[in-house]
């Protein structure tokens, strides 16, 4: 299995996604666009594309983020989808999947930062790749926006703050607005980059720093690894 990551910022790193790929001895490659690394020319060089999050949006101009080319990423996503490659998008990555179909993205009803439950709906509980999450699983969040839906897309999970937490675009393509890859190191990055004392008094779904830093991320990481194993081995 050849896994390629698109990373937009050093502080939005792949966390448990990378841990999984390394534990499985998969071949790993990166496009660290924040370091001006190039995207793959096409989808021939990987079997799985994982598009990570970032503070950008899918229609961002290049003034604030000169290293970020959302149109190029959307073209690569569509090439991967058309080539029947596995594609997983996280946060911004999920929004880019939706945008790659020409349907843009949307603002979430609420800002979410921290760890809050997602609830699987009937479709989610029938999806063998995520059914092991159960009716409810506490996962990481760090977003303002959410992905849009194609006619074939199926919402599998929602949270109190966001109605589109997990979206299945096809059997090989999943968008996660939530972050099951969070680790203690990523938790420290969240606290470093966000004004949590101010935000936690203004927004109902923003946690305090101490709650984010002391949370045990292993349960969500384990759930993510099972999902990835099912997604990859079931479509090998």
UniProtKB/TrEMBL annotation:
<feature type="domain" description="Glutamine amidotransferase">
    <location>
        <begin position="42"/>
        <end position="184"/>
    </location>
</feature>
<dbReference type="InterPro" id="IPR044992">
    <property type="entry name" value="ChyE-like"/>
</dbReference>
<keyword id="KW-0315">Glutamine amidotransferase</keyword>
<protein>
    <submittedName>
        <fullName>Glutamine amidotransferase</fullName>
    </submittedName>
</protein>
<dbReference type="Pfam" id="PF00117">
    <property type="entry name" value="GATase"/>
</dbReference>
<dbReference type="GO" id="GO:0005829">
    <property type="term" value="C:cytosol"/>
</dbReference>
<dbReference type="InterPro" id="IPR017926">
    <property type="entry name" value="GATASE"/>
</dbReference>
<dbReference type="GO" id="GO:0016740">
    <property type="term" value="F:transferase activity"/>
</dbReference>
<keyword id="KW-0808">Transferase</keyword>
<dbReference type="InterPro" id="IPR029062">
    <property type="entry name" value="Class_I_gatase-like"/>
</dbReference>
């Amino acid at each position: 299995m050849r896994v390629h990551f698109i990373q937009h910022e050093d502080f939005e790193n792949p966390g448990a996604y990378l841990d999984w790929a390394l534990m499985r001895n998969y071949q790993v490659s990166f496009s660290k666009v924040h370091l001006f690394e190039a995207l793959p020319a096409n989808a021939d060089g990987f079997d799985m594309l994982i598009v990570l999050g970032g503070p950008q949006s899918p229609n961002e101009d290049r003034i604030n983020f000169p290293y970020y080319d959302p149109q190029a990423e959307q073209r690569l996503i569509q090439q991967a989808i058309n080539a029947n490659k596995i594609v997983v998008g996280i946060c911004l990555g999920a929004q880019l999947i939706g945008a790659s179909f020409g349907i843009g993205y949307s603002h979430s009803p609420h800002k979410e930062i921290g760890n809050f439950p997602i609830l699987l709906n009937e479709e989610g509980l029938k999806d063998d790749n995520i059914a092991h999450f159960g009716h409810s699983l506490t996962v990481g969040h760090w977003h303002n926006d959410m992905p849009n839906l194609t006619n074939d897309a199926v919402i599998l999970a929602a949270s109190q703050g966001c109605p589109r937490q997990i979206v299945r675009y096809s059997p090989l393509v999943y968008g996660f607005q939530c972050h099951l890859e969070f680790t203690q190191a990523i938790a420290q990055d969240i606290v470093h980059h966000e004004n949590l004392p101010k935000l936690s008094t203004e927004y109902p779904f923003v946690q305090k720093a101490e709650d984010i830093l002391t949370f045990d991320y292993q349960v969500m990481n384990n759930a993510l690894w099972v999902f990835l194993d099912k997604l990859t081995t079931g479509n090998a």
